[in-house]
Sequence to fold (890 residues):
Amino acid sequence: MPPKGTTKKRAVNDGSTTHTPTLAEQLSYLHNPRPFKNPNYIKNANRRTKNLKTVLGQERERERVERERRRQERDSHAMDIYEVKKELVDANEEISTYLSIEAPPSVLPQRHYCDITGLEAPYTDPRTGLRYHDKSVYELIKNLSPSAAKDYLAARGVNPVVR
Amino acid sequence: MDEAETSNIFYVPAPSLPSITPPDSYDPFRSQPVPLIIDNGSSNLRFGFSTSTSPHSSPNVIAKYKERKFNQSLLLFGDAIDAESGAKSQGKTPWEGDVLLNFDAMENALDYAFVRLGIDAEGIEHPVLMTERLCSPLHSRALTSELMFEQYSVPSLTYCVDSVMSFYHNNKPASGSTFGADGLVVSFNTASTSVIPILNGKGVLSHAKRIPWGTQQSTEYLLKLIQLKYSSFPTRVTSAQASWMLHNFCSFATDYPAVLRSLKIPANMRAAERIIQFPFAIPVIEEKTEEELIRIAEKRKEQGKKLQELAAKSRMEKLAKKENDLQYLTNLREGKSENKREWMNTLQVEGFDDDAALDETIKKLEVDVKRARKKDPDGQDDAIEEPSFPLIDVPDADLDEEGIKEKKKQKLMKAGFDARARARREKEKEREEKEAEGRREEEERENNFDDWAARLRREQEAIMSKIKERGRRKAALSDRKSAAAQARMKNIASLAADERVSKKKRKAGAEDMFGADDEDWQIYRKLNAAAVSSDEEEEFNQLRIIESKLLLHDPTFTAQHTHASITSQRSALISAFRPQYEEGDIEGSARIHLNTERWRVCETYFSPGMAGVDSAGLGEVLQGILARFSEAEKARLVKNVFITGGPSQFPGLQERLHGTLRPILPPEMHLGDIVHAADPSLDAWKGMASFANTDEFHQVSVTAEEYQEWGGERIKRWWGGNCNSAV
Fold:
């Protein structure tokens, strides 16, 4: 079993303080020497943690630009059909980015499951929109507060718009 | 559900403190070009040298925390975060789902890895093999490359896809030959699940697909379900506990609808449930000992007695005062002088209007004093004397003005007295009647028990049905479209209509005659839906009386037949789904019952729509991918279906996948057994390690010079890596 845990190097010189280092301090490696790091390296300002949305947006942009470029290349080689075919094949194969391999939305008809119990749900409550399994579950739904009903719907991913 | 558990109760594990282990020794690796393998996972970071048999594995979390007690700054990694309770909230991971975003955390994580390996040279002098996500965004790759090349000065760097490496490890070619296996890799990761077809040892990444549903989302979903089911749970359920529950109790159902149909029956649901007992605290009730109780009772009695004495004293004082007043006034009356005017003055000084008033006051005082005296010894009221009204019978003509006034006063008093006497008599009569009725009922009960019981029961049912009817009417009124609500609106409209009085009559001057008849006001009862509370109370009281009588005398009428228990009865299904514990049962109320959630959470892999994620499920994705290949290639792919990744250890997954794939393939095509990775969590690293020891490794790595020339985004295309922006 690979041993777990971190280094034992203590952070504070014992002579100066009177307390014994806690477990956390012993596990901390803040003050360990790190000779393998390049001291001359200046952190790239670009490295500020970017939002996931911006990163994905960048990807999309890049993909679009690539596609444009390839199309232009193909157009310019329009005379030689064999080359075009090769380009097509290459183009199809190469354009696979983070976003392109995302699974498509489902096309199968959705099965209705009870929001409360998880069993099959042939019925839907018109007032709240919750799906339920049978009349005893309906009794329970009738006594739910509107916020609880909204929570159940949110678990299913249905977010009713409140004007 | 299959094995019989003697006890279904499981206890939430208590978190354990991490241990301290010294770093590895670097000596065997110093100045050797041994490749360094880092499996950069969203949940765990696995690292080590390629010649080791297994990696160091640790959760990929950093916490930079300033401790309050001794004012120390700490940098903790992975398990060590458990050592400090405040550090957990400050934990940051380099990954956000599937995308590497937080590079400060990444740097700290890599620092930890290298410190742990004991590297003390200047810069890392080993070629590095790292994982990245399937078709990872170029931003992540660029920054990681920059980190590795510029900060750590690695000589060369290679990226690979972890699931392909795991596949490689399990389908290793004979030594010397190139990797040429075929198969379909289903990789379960922390924040996504991906399917990659592999032909001729090369991943066909353009046909790969990724579903944004993984362990992280499953844990959140389970937590949400538990919070919805147990909205008033005493303790907070954390994500760590939810993930523990996910790992130990959830499994894939081979046929989900069939499982649901069997769980519909409450007995099956009870059999299939797992009870998780959370830690609870029993409140300490201070039990007073016998002596203390006696002492408290005595103290209370003493206080009562003291109060009584005080009351008696004040009464005595008042009595004395009244007697004094009486004496004074009587003396005054006796000492009445002959001179009328003087007498009048004296009276007015005392505050009396005339003689009669003085006499009255004196009489009242006398009565009071007598009553008080009588009360003291035995405390009984006198019989009320009948005051006399002499003047009533005297005709008006005989009296003077004063006399007439007196007569009127006496008439009023007599009327009041008569009325009071009448009321008293009626009350007595009522009481007698009630007693007679009670006696009659008792006789009936004793003589003819069954009839009496039957009659009472009928009455109870009648009242219960009335209450239900009322409830139904109220519900109907709140629904805008029901017949009751529409009738109500019609009534309102007719009341407010201008044609209540026809035009002709209005011209003739007649007015709306609403209200002249008492019955007209009954319409407000129909209009106002909320004005029925007094009737309700009456009915409830009657019901209670009947029920108490029945409970007392009828042995077959138990507490279950009462109205209260019938209304609060919950169906068997709901009580199996979420058992209700007594009010004071603290242990019971800290329990979570998992029945349908055990399969529901895993089912979301196959239909993420259940949890609100608009994506195709695993089955649909597999179908879509296979459809893009020719028949021959399909046959090669499905002969070797391989599952890897931590979450692939859920029980029931292999049967479920087999059941999903079989129907979508032509019957003559051979579907091989679903192969499970030998060690789902570590196989990727092991595959990488064995690959790094081959020669091919050096051909596909990006050296530092190439990095300088191309930048961080370009990589070399090879069978185990991504192909976006690849040369």
Q: What stands out?
A: Chain B is about 50% helix and 10% strand. The longest helix of chain B spans residues 401-447. Chain B touches chain A through 103 residues (CB under 8 Å).
